[in-house]
Amino acid sequence: MLPRRILQFLIIYCLFIGTLMLVKYGLRLSDYVIPAPAAIFQTLLAEYRQYTLATMNTLTVAVVGQVLSVILAFAIGIVGRRSTWFGSFIKVAAYNIQAYPIVALAPILFILLGDGFLTRLLIAAMICYFPVLLSVLGIMSKPVEDIEHFYRATGKMRWQLEVKIRAFENLSQLTTVISGSATLAMAGTIVAEFIAADAGIGYSIRIALYQSDLGKIVIALFLIGITIAAYQGLLELLGSAVKRAWTGNALS
User: Fold this and answer.
1) pLDDT digit string, tens, across residues 7-55
2) How far apart are CA 223 and CA 38, in angstroms?
3) CA–centroid distance for 20 within its chain
């Protein structure tokens, strides 16, 4: 999974660079507008260390934000799975919060919390959690009739067991959703850094934009892409391992 993810990204990135070069030479644009391949390579050599550290900084925030968003999504999904007044209230509150665009909420967070780690973390979690929440709500609200009927008939059904049964029956879907949410967590962190942070690859892109240096932006995109491809590949491997272990325990 991991090598395949990285290979797929490299193919996409090469197509992107090829298209960029076609535009450059087709329209005869100067190196100031779109740098030549040699200039991009020189930029890579010059900025590789600094941009790699910035990308790792962003990835750290994204991973923590994703973990928080998954925990929050599961907590709301488990509480809101029943058609009770409180469950409905929780779901409506979660939906209403998500209705506000992050560009409207971000300035408030920056004013209250500053431009450091915590603000980036909250923005990453806010962008990431809603798709996970929708999937968790859908899974937790749908009974597994045959299995749950047996436990209810024997008087052994508890809410913990109900959650475990529904999660086990939809484990592949949960793994896919959590793996996909990594992209949103990374994007959320970069958005926060681009708006008003003082660290991370999003901040580096903002500086490169002010300098009109497309070469640096292209290098940043490469590092972001290969990092998220590797991270998603690792999440898929972890999900497969959890599924095998859980299935083995369920069958034993």
Assistant:
1) 888 999 899 989 989 988 888 888 888 888 888 888 888 888 999 999 9
2) 18
3) 27
Q: Are 36 and 211 in contact (CB under 8 A)?
A: no
Domain architecture of the chain: domains with CATH: 2-251 (1.10.3720.10)
Q: In terms of C-beta density within 10 A (0-12 exposed, 13-18 middle, 19 or more buried), how is residue 117 classed?
A: middle
Instruction: Identify which of 61, 68, 72, 62 has the alpha carbon closest to the alpha carbon of residue 182.
Output: 62
How is residue 200 annotated by DSSP? S
Q: Calculate the dihedral angle through the C-alpha atoms of 140, 145, 150, 152, rounding to the nearest 10 degrees.
A: 60
Contact 214, 35 (CB under 8 A): yes
Contacts with 179 (C-beta within 8 Å, 6 or more apart), sequence order: 232, 235, 236, 239
Question: Can you read off the two tokens belonging to residue 102?
Answer: 């992050």
Tokens of 226: 């290969």
Contacts of residue 210, defined as CB under 8 A and 6 or more positions apart, other chains included, come to none
10 exposure class (CB count in 10 Å sphere: 0-12, 13-18, 19+): middle
State pLDDT tens for residues 45-102: 888 899 999 999 889 888 888 888 888 888 877 777 666 666 667 667 666 766 666 6
Q: Which two tokens stand for residue 12?
A: 């996409």
Residues, the chain, total? 252
Q: Residue 14: left if φ>0, alpha if ψ -120 to 50, beta else—which one?
A: alpha
Q: Which residue has the tokens 């660079």?
A: 17
Fill in the amino acid letter for 151.
Y
